Amino acid sequence: MPIDAAKALAAEPRTGEITWDRRDVQLYHLGVGAGVPATDADELRYTLESRLHVLPSFATVAGSGSPGVISGLSMPGVEVDLARVLHGGQRLDIHRPLPVTGRATATGRIAAVYDKGKAAVLVMRTEVADEDGPLWTNDAQIFVRGEGGWGGDRGPSARLDPPTGEPDKVVERAVREDQALLYRLSGDYNPLHADPEFAKLAGFDRPVLHGLCTYGITLKAVVDTLLDGDVSRVRGYATRFAGVVFPGETLRIRMWRGEGAVRVAVSAVQRDDAPVLADTLVEHS
User: Structure pTM?
Assistant: First the structure.
């Protein structure tokens, strides 16, 4: 079997040093749509070095995401065809606010392997700490189609009960035609997001936006709208990738306030509110 769950879970973690600076942070913020309007005081917190704070979802690209998902797919016990791989979900836990400039150690391992019948799910965990202690923990849920069915643990369900009532806030965010081209400069150079011919081979009529770009756009909307623009209030952020976004589309972001958390649903306006992010939760102080 291409995935040996026991071997994958027992494999030694991979550790590497990552660094980032204000330029990396500013580039990421621009990649998730910050800076519009360019002179707005709230937007300058994402773009101007003298006022800069760090959106917590930057953790998904800091140090180009090292050790990263691709590295995890080459761990002992895992031999899969990348064409069968889907990024199914993302979970981020923030232990303290991210510094504008940093040097840290990232330790990556496969934390869980689940058997979903027609697919296997790998949970790739990256834990990042600097000399002052833990900074964040990043879990990527990776679906590998056609690799389930060995009788293993199905794992927990990522589905949440639907939010009740009308959302407390609804905002729309336009995705620029060049959004994927800008976002990929933060480290994800998958041609699916830039090369029309490659996108056609993958079954799309044109390149699609990175799921983690939508993830960042959404967190920024929640922070700016319901958390008073205070990035330090974010404690955790989880989502399930339910559909694709094409550059040039508009995202509709619905938010429901809860005790210490915001429920979120994201859809593509031009495609009759086709789901994009589902089971989305932003935990905050």
Answer: 0.95
Looking from the CA of 54 toward its CB, the CA atoms found within 13 Å total: 22
- Cα(8)–Cα(75) distance, integer angstroms: 7
pLDDT band, very low/low/confident/very high, at 5 (cuts 50, 70, 90): confident
- Report the SS3 class of residue 172: strand
The least confident of 43-47, 73-77, 146-150 is 73-77
- CA pseudo-torsion sign 138, 231, 97, 263: negative
Other Cβ atoms less than 10 A from the Cβ of 184: the count is 20
In which element (H, E) is residue 223 found?
Answer: helix 211-226
pLDDT, tens digit (0-9, with 9 covering 90-100), for 207-227 = 999 999 999 999 999 999 999
Q: Residue 259 half-sphere exposure, CB side, CA atoms within 13 Å? A: 0
What does the pLDDT read at residue 70?
66
Q: Give the integer Cα–Cα distance in Å for 187 and 192.
A: 14
> Any idea which residues carry the catalytic annotation?
188, 193
Going by C-alpha positions, the residue among 229, 284, 226 that lies closest to residue 255 is 226
Give strand ranges (E) for 56-193: 85-94, 102-115, 119-130, 133-145, 169-174
Instruction: Scan for tokens 């150079």, then name that residue.
Output: 189
